[in-house]
Amino acid sequence: MPLFDVSGWSLPEAPIAESPTSSSNSRKRKRPDSDASSEKKIRSEVNLEKIVKTLTGKSTAGSKKQKTKKTPKQTSVDVRKKNISLPMPLKGTSERLTESATSLPPAKKAKTKHKESGSQESLVKSIKAAEDPQPKDGLTTLQKNMKQNLEGARFRLINELLYKNDSIEAQRLMLEDPTMYNDYHVGFRHQVQSWPTNPVDHFISILAKYPKKTVIADLGCGDAAIARNLVPEGMSVLSFDFKSDNSFVIETDICGKLPLPGSEGIDGRPSHGEGHIVDVVVFSLSLMGTNWPKSIREAWRILKPDGELRIAEVASRFSDMNKFIAFISSIGFRLISKDQQNTHFTLFEFKKVTRKYRTEEEWSKILAQVHLLKPCAYKRR
User: Fold this and answer.
1) Which of 240, 257, 266, 320 has the most Cβ atoms closer than 10 angstroms to its Cβ?
2) Which pLDDT does position 31 carry in this prediction?
3) What domains lie within the chain, and their CATH numbers?
4) Using only C-alpha atoms, what is the Rg of the chain?
5) Which residue in 323, 347, 321 sits closest to 336, CA to CA?
């Protein structure tokens, strides 16, 4: 008899060979006859059916044929699902227009906007400005720094050329390269910003107190800041430099012959010269080139008797300040005051005095003292 006897399952019976020994002595089980096995199969089927009926409450015989009936509610749900899965039917133009006119979109929930305080607004603006990679001028912070470095390098190069060449060569270079003059003064203005005070501002504040009829000659004027400030106040300012880029500047070499009247006197006796019209001559950081002493001689020629000579020069340029003062005095001036309070430059005030007439040979020896002012060299970066 098999271990599990299930209805419908059967295995073919293989013939059992009879052993030579007698059946009474064989220890093997004898297969039951066909009637007994069929009877047991019927009993097992009946027992299985009773177990299934007890668990489910239904007979297994009709379970395959019977179908569960659906309630009306389940039927409507199935129909709805089937309709949803189908595409929407196309509507006519009139129906769509009517629906769009009558139907309103669902109201959106209003968003509450919190008012920011003044400090918060300024903080947000500063953050946005810092995060903006492309500011209004079109340059990022990195590009601005690179541009300033390039401008500073070009300024130092031009500065070295101006101090280590005479005025004739410096003017030739600026005329050949029109951008050199502007680049130099842009770099110079940037350099002066790091100084405690600008000597040009010092001269403007002093000269603004002078009478309106005062005539001022600004030699090496740059962008003519003195004239821009004092001419609107009714004063006369004559501005001279290598190159003129505005209506205030007269283009000339200040170490050569200035286009102004004046003379150096007559041989045989001390004098102030003749034909002068200038009351004050200003050199604001403009004693440059290897022939700068010639500009001091020209200042004496154009100044009126007792006229003023005002000089502002970088403090580090003086190899011997007393010798510098002695040289200016030998041209025909007397020292009135000296101001060394500023750490970056020194201020001088001289007055024109009479002098003897000199020959060109005598002048060549006097004007050879170029070494009294060292070239203004900036550190290379």
Assistant:
1) 240
2) 56
3) 138-194 (1.10.10.2150), 197-372 (3.40.50.150)
4) 56
5) 347
